[in-house]
């Protein structure tokens, strides 16, 4: 198996598994962070969800769950609750929240976009595409929706179509870090780590780049075996323990991949003898 093919399979394995150091930016920017919706709820916790520890995320989920039970059709609360559930690994519950909200707001672009994100998180990519495309308005295209649609196409293996959409999104929002990071992820999934790093490093240097963008840069650097550099990048956003845990996880996944390749090579040798 070639190194590029191995990296492709490994990148897809990480993406499918939903590793903490990978998926945060894949659908970043899918929903607006206006003060009228999830942003205002998020700020009430004192920090953004992507910078919370596991314990803080669990506490946020408990609080938002109580608020959601009181007002399940409150858009801001429901979207924030769905978001934090997803970050806690409770993707099915997150989808249930967004499905109910999409019924209440069938024409709301922001809700449909978040619904598509929840569908994609559990692998329902065709349904996710439908939700994202229904949210899009051709005469007034939204760059966030273009980037989200492209990310889903990447998961479906349609990288050429995905990159066309990323370019369109960049035409609408030049130098947007989440688009550049998603574009980098497209190349990561294909096994082109050098090009992936180029786009992700550019994304991380742009104004407005958040923790999720930099964690994806840490991932692609680590995938190339530069673990110290990856940990240094991760430490900018995470606690030392979290950064070390992420790199340790990445090391173990790479070790498993190498062991799998060695076993496969041995089997191929036996078959040819």
UniProtKB/TrEMBL annotation:
InterPro entries: TMTC_O-mannosyltransferase, TPR-4, TPR-like_helical_dom_sf, TPR_rpt, UCP035836. This is Flp pilus assembly protein TadD, contains TPR repeats. It comes from the Bacteria. The lineage of its organism: Bacteria, Pseudomonadati, Pseudomonadota, Alphaproteobacteria, Hyphomicrobiales. PANTHER family: PROTEIN O-MANNOSYL-TRANSFERASE TMTC2. SMART domains: TPR (SM00028). It comes from Mesorhizobium australicum. One of its GO terms (molecular function) is identical protein binding. Keywords: Signal. Residues 1-30 form the signal peptide.
């Amino acid at each position: 198996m070639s190194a590029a093919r191995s990296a492709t399979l490994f990148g897809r394995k990480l993406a499918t598994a939903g590793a903490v150091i990978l998926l945060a930016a894949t659908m970043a920017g899918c929903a607006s962070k206006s003060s009228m919706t999830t942003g205002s709820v998020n700020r009430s916790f004192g920090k953004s969800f992507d910078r919370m520890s596991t314990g803080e995320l669990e506490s946020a989920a408990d609080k938002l769950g109580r608020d959601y039970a009181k007002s399940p059709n409150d858009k801001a609360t429901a979207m924030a609750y769905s978001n934090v559930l997803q970050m806690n690994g409770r993707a099915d519950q997150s989808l249930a929240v967004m499905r109910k909200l999409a019924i209440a707001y069938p024409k709301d672009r922001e809700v449909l976009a978040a619904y598509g994100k929840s569908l994609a998180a559990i692998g329902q990519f065709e349904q996710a595409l439908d939700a994202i495309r229904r949210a899009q308005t051709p005469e007034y295209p939204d760059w966030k929706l273009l980037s989200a649609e492209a990310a889903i196409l990447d998961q479906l293996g349609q990288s050429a179509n995905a990159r066309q959409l990323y370019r369109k999104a960049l035409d609408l929002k030049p130098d947007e870090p989440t688009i550049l990071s998603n574009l980098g992820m497209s190349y990561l999934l294909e096994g082109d780590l050098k090009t992936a790093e180029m786009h992700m490093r550019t994304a991380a240097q742009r104004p407005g780049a958040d923790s999720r963008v930099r964690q994806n840069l840490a991932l692609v650097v680590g995938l190339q075996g530069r673990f110290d550099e990856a940990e240094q990048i991760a430490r900018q956003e995470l606690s030392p323990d979290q950064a070390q845990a992420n790199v340790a996880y990445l090391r173990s996944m790479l070790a498993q991949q190498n062991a799998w390749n060695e076993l496969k090579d041995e089997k191929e040798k036996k078959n040819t003898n």
